[in-house]
Predict the structure.
Amino acid sequence: MKPITVKEQVRLSVGRCFALALSSMSYRFFRSMVTVSVLALAVAFLAHMLVYGMIEHQTKLSAYNELRDSRSHGEWVTRLTAPDPEGVILRNLADGGTDLSASTALADRTAEYKAWSGASAAEWDEDQAAAREVESVYRYFEGLPPAAHAILTSGLEPSVALERLARPELFEAFQEHLAELRLKPPLGDVEVLRRLVQENRPRLAALVKRIQAGHLRAIGLVRKAFGGQSPRAILAATPAELTLALSQAGFHFDSLALDGLARFARRDALLTTLARGLDLPAVKTAVVQKTGLERADVNTSRVLELIDSEARATWLAGVLSDQPQPIRVDAAEILALARDLRREARLAAAVGDEVPEPSQGLLAVSPWMQWLIALSFLVCMVGVANAMTMAVTERFTEIATMKCLGAMNGVVMTLFLIESSMQGLVGAIAGLILGIGLALARGLAGYGGLMAVPGEELLAGSGVCLAAGMVLAVVAAVGPAWMAARLAPMEAMRIE
Amino acid sequence: MTMNEPVQHVAHDEKPVIIRTLGLVKSYPMGDKVTYALHDVTATIYRGEFIAILGPSGSGKTTFFNMIGALDSLSEGRVLIDEVDVAQLSAAELAFLRCRKIGYIFQSYNLIRYMTALENVTVPMAFAGVAPEAARRRGMDLLALVGLADRWTHRPIEMSGGQQQRVAIARALCNQPMVLLCDEPTANLDLKTGADILEILQHLNKDRGITIVCATHDHRLLNVCDRMMWIRDGHIERVEDRRNITVRVGRIGGQE
């Protein structure tokens, strides 16, 4: 008799493993649907949270950017008309000094102020500190209960109330009031407050005056460059001319932001013309007869709201040109303007009050949303891991049998790896489609035509969801399978 | 005759040994105490014989079966399959041993549910690296041997217990093992089907010279096997040659 010789078992090719896994999968197709559906739902939830967060953010951001030109035009009209009021200057000084990452607009503004004030670096730092103290006192007044507020400010504006404290007898009275009310003094220390009202605040007032004077000079220079035109007319100039004149006058700004101004200047001019026309009694009467608006309500915004077709725009242009002193406006321009304004109103509604963070990326969503996503991911993990683990635990006998028949641990693992990753892939793709579909539907319902879909982020997010689903499925399945495969066959069979 | 040693010595001269256990112990810790499923079992199985392992349930015969089949870890002692110590084998060598040298037949058949009869038979050949076409041909031959050639497309769930056990036998034979280990092969079957299975096993033993070790409490096996081993409470109670028993039973019958 020949003695047996024990050699190493051959290693199975991946192709054979695939064939084996395929026969298992085709048999289990409907049974594994439950597991796959759990995974799909989990991934759908995750994808929906992630993608909807992105859509919401992107929509707000693009709406905000679209509105930027109109906002910027309004700002430039103000800047070229008169210097900033004292309150605005103080707030800009206070904010510009504290926040290093302050917006570029604020940085531009403070740079202008510094140049116009002619202050040295040391003086400038002191002034900024004083501005912050002033702002802090204002906030102190605002935070007081109504009764204390009335007593301490005598019912005056915070700035006036603070100015009055420069008079020693009023400062004494203020101190007595504080003692009576048992309140901590503003800035925490009476002496600091005294120094502020007696020295720093007057100096700050002088600084503000110098800034305003500098601003006025700059406005004068710009107007001179454009032959004394009105600010709105100046803004209609070409971006190149405008950039040159503004920077020569000492304004600091982002020259790219000037590109959209001309369009808004033209629009602005049209609005002014329309307002002039709609003020004419004959036009008012015609509009009232045609639209049924109250006579008092006839103004540009209300009338433009009603211009929603070419016929109406032509009609309005016709009415205006029929006047004894005809006002010539293009019907197409009126219609375009009306549409622009309606769209802007919707954009403004979409953006809401908050200024969207310009930073992009996967987690360009609010912290609250991040928290929700993390939580939903956790829920998915538990659900999927549970479903997969159950499905594999049922098959411990099968694993044991395969080992009795001479399967290497690696083969068992490869089979489960193939199966679970296939299940993971199918589930994750189905879930992704469902989740993105839901997010798009929700975005469309919420924002309509304004909805903006971020391309790159969406791809990255899809990748993350897909990977998360697959990794989850594979880890949850291969973990227990590995546990069973490592054991001696009969030990694995005993686990039920 | 009642002890292992004399039997082993007598037989050792006649036949070569295929499986040997030395002081085999399998224990399970149960809290503070240790429960022994097998306690100091030393046994020998010879090449080409048909041996029945008998004993009441819970006696440790399935544990013994798993040990000599290299299916379970042992606590103490040695299992030598053709003088190769199972404990010394690597995972890959164990897989090789289980795949080609030993065929297993279980009480509950343990067919793989999602595979057809033919696929079930060819699985061990796939693990052994046999080309799919060759495996298929040999699988069909083996199914014909157990009388299931026309049912090769059926899944286990579509077959009766006896048919499933016959598929399991075909599967156990596919890599031409030297030993066929059967754990209660007829326990789940009715009398007629059980007899069919035993007939197949006997045929394999007599005509093909395959060693068959059969843990059972089916007494029909007494007519088929060459030797019997009784296990009780984790010990080998006695080992006897069937001829001796037949002679003795005959004599007792004659007296009555």
Remarks:
- The interface with chain A takes residues 16, 47, 66, 69, 71-73, 81-84, 89-93, 95-101, 104, 110-115, 119, 123-124, 126-129, 132, 155, 171, 175, 178 of chain B (CB under 8 Å).
- Confidence is low (pLDDT under 50) at residues 1-12, 247-256 of chain B.
- The radius of gyration of chain B is 19 Å.
